[in-house]
Design a protein that fits this description.
mainly alpha; 70% helix
């Protein structure tokens, strides 16, 4: 009996000595030497299950594959002018309080309240879900621009939260006499054209003032030279 106990002790001591000496142990023996390991976390199973479900949705057409992070709004939305895209991008950044490149539900809630069209919790979820291509529960810049694209082609219901966002964020619809999404964007283009014309006229006036200032400066310089000539 004593010899058996001694044999067990020697077997346990031998792996420890080999490890300390730098010898690699066989996998089963190394695992037994380390003792029992904790079971994998349940969250790993949940994450794997979510990934498999999403892949199944993509296969069945119920979900879109995630897009590349490199996004060029000018090529993906060629129907929008550069000015319009910059205006919408500026608005997106204004309400992206977290500066993470997304508008989450709380930030969308604040946006709709400031626009004068507050939404319920379910209403906000519905707004995000309608353009949420990657199912992450928040709006990226592309998804934000997609709202206005849908408004332009008439894919939004008139009484929807997204249509309210599109109308209230850009043009006072009642003043422009807009009766639909296409007319809404035509009015936006007209407003931008008027603004561009105003800016061009303003720049022309500024250029004229600069030229007048330059002429006056040259006349004064010529007068000083003439005065200096007569003084000597």
């Amino acid at each position: 009996m004593a010899s058996e106990d001694l044999g067990c002790k020697l077997q346990r001591q031998l792996p420890r000595e080999k490890v300390q000496a730098g010898f690699a142990l066989p996998a089963p023996l190394a695992a037994s030497a380390r003792g029992p390991q904790p079971a994998p976390a349940a969250s790993a199973d949940a994450e794997l299950s979510a990934q498999l479900n999403r892949r199944l949705d993509i296969t069945e057409g119920a979900a879109q594959p995630r897009r590349c992070k490199v996004f060029n709004p000018y090529t993906e939305f060629p129907q929008f002018s550069r000015r319009l895209i910059k205006d919408l991008e500026r608005m997106f950044k204004l309400y992206d309080a977290g500066r993470d490149g997304f508008i989450d539900m709380m930030e969308l809630k604040l946006m709709m309240e400031k626009l004068g069209a507050p939404q319920t919790h379910l209403g906000l979820k519905s707004m995000i879900r309608e353009v949420d291509e990657d199912f992450d529960g928040k709006l990226s810049l592309r998804e934000f621009l997609l709202i206005f694209h849908k408004a332009a082609v008439g894919e939004l219901q008139e009484d929807s939260g997204l249509m309210a966002l599109a109308k209230l964020s850009e043009i006072d619809v009642s003043q422009e006499g807009v009766k639909g999404a296409k007319d809404f964007f035509e009015a936006k283009v007209q407003a931008l054209s008027s603004a561009s014309k105003f800016e061009a006229e303003l720049k022309a006036e500024q250029e004229e003032r600069k030229q007048e200032e330059e002429k006056r400066r040259l006349r004064q310089a010529a007068f000083r030279e003439l005065k200096a000539a007569f003084s000597t």
